[in-house]
Backbone:
């Protein structure tokens, strides 16, 4: 919802979070929503990055080129100052950047789900081709890397099909 | 899986684990002396933006969630930039 007054909003987010969450099935009914818990900032490093990001944004808003336009900070506002207060504000008011990923990570170890050909380990005819195969979330927006994964996956399906038809 | 009433045919303990996302906490300031999307996003001005979009496919309605972003180092111990600052977004009364 847009504010009544002219304003600027900025948002900091940590590029490479260490916290790990989960997606769990809750019912045999596929229409039932799974339990998704991102476990945001479970790790201390992530909490410090969140606080550091908010402090950076304050420094940015205080830079001469922006400060000359700033009337007052509205959110979180001047009463929020200490690291604990900033963290609490972030916890209460933060949200997803919609970069959900990594829950079927690619790799060759016990916790990996798909191999380097995006095939589910131990199954021959099932691939996962989306952002969930990233072992770690990209530092920035997930859009371009996800398109890359999709293009690569599509090329692998085509190559496999050609090989099968030729055999 | 057993708790959900589903029998396991192919055990892979990593399924659904390692879930990651970015988490954002927004800050906003009231500003003056400069035009912002807040005014352009309502009333006659917004009607103008709609017409502009219909006529030329440009303007406010084509903006993404953030118009610019900076990669910055926000933690002492990080060797490389570890924070992303996205701005400006239209200022909202609720974050």
Residues:
């Amino acid at each position: 919802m847009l504010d009544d007054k002219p304003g600027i909003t900025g948002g900091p987010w940590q590029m490479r979070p260490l916290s790990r969450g989960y997606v769990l099935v809750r019912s045999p009914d596929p229409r039932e929503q799974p339990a998704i818990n991102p476990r945001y900032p479970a790790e201390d490093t992530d909490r410090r990055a969140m606080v550091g990001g908010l402090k950076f944004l304050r420094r940015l808003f205080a830079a001469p080129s922006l400060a000359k336009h700033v009337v007052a900070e509205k959110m979180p506002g001047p009463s929020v100052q200490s690291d604990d207060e900033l963290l609490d504000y972030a916890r209460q008011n933060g949200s997803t950047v919609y970069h959900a990923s990594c829950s079927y990570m690619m790799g060759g170890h016990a916790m990996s789900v798909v191999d380097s050909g995006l095939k589910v380990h131990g199954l021959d005819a099932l691939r996962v081709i989306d952002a969930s195969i990233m072992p770690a979330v990209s530092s920035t927006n997930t859009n371009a890397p996800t398109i890359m994964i999709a293009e690569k996956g599509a090329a692998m399906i085509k190559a496999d099909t050609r090989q099968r038809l030729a055999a | 899986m057993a708790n959900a009433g589903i029998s396991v045919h192919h055990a892979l303990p990593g399924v659904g684990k390692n879930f990651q996302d970015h988490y954002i906490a927004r800050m906003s300031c009231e500003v003056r002396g400069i035009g912002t999307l807040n005014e352009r996003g309502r009333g006659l001005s917004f009607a103008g933006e709609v017409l502009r979009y219909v006529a030329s496919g440009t303007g406010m309605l084509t903006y993404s969630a953030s118009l610019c972003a900076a990669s910055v180092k926000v933690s002492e111990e990080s060797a490389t930039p570890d924070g992303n600052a996205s701005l400006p977004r239209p200022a909202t009364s609720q974050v």
Summary: Residues 99-167 of chain A form one domain. The mean pLDDT of chain A is 95.
